[in-house]
Amino acid sequence: GTVFVVQWDQVYLQGKEDVGSFTFQAALHSSGRIVFGYKEIPVPVLQISASQHPVKAGLSDAFMVLNPSPDVPESRRRTIYEYHRVELDTGRIASLSAVEFTPLPTCLQHRSCEMCVTSELTFNCSWCHVLQRYP
């Protein structure tokens, strides 16, 4: 009830099955922490060809827009817009390693307007969720 884990187990690079399999996971904690765990990384990630197997490691925000396809009226075309990317140094990803992302404090953690405006955050937290307006 406090963590959701997704594991990729024995994943092979297409055409490079002889290098071995990758096993890794992502754990999303209810506290906001995100942990990437790398159990088996048989080859340095920097040696993986980006043209054949694009490697992305880290976090990013994105949104998706569905547009009607001009060629097929019944279908829709997905466009994903990515922003605010945090990339891991893929040279540091190795077997039996982990990376943890810990969320910074935000106004959303406060349960009342008073808690929000009197907080010691390093930015101007002034939105009052209870009143749905700026105080």
Can you describe what's shown?
With 135 residues, the protein is mainly β. It folds into two domains: 3-103, no CATH class; 106-134. The chain has one helix at residues 113-117; strands at 3-11, 22-29, 34-40, 58-68, 76-87, 97-101. The chain has a four-stranded antiparallel beta sheet with strand order 1-2-3-6, with no helix packed on it. Strand 4 and strand 5 (76-87) form a beta hairpin. The longest helix has 5 residues, at 113-117. The chain is extended. The two termini are 36 Å apart. The mean pLDDT is 84.
The count of strands amounts to 6
Overall 3D geometry? extended
Give the oligomer, counting copies of the same chain as homo and different chains as hetero: single chain
Major sheet size, sense and barrel closure:
4 strands, antiparallel
Kindly estimate the percentage of residues that lie in beta strands according to DSSP: 35-45%
Alpha carbon gap, first and last residue: 36 Å
Question: Roughly how many Å is the radius of gyration?
Answer: 21 Å
Helical amount: under 10%
Strand order of the largest sheet: 1-2-3-6
Average pLDDT score: 84
Structural class: mainly beta
Order of helices and strands: EEEEEEH
Per DSSP, the total helix count is: 1
List the domain count as a whole number: 2
**Low-confidence stretches at least 5 residues in length (pLDDT < 50)?**
none
InterPro entries: PLXDC (IPR031152)
Family: Belongs to the plexin family.
Membrane topology: Single-pass type I membrane protein
Organism: Ptilorrhoa leucosticta
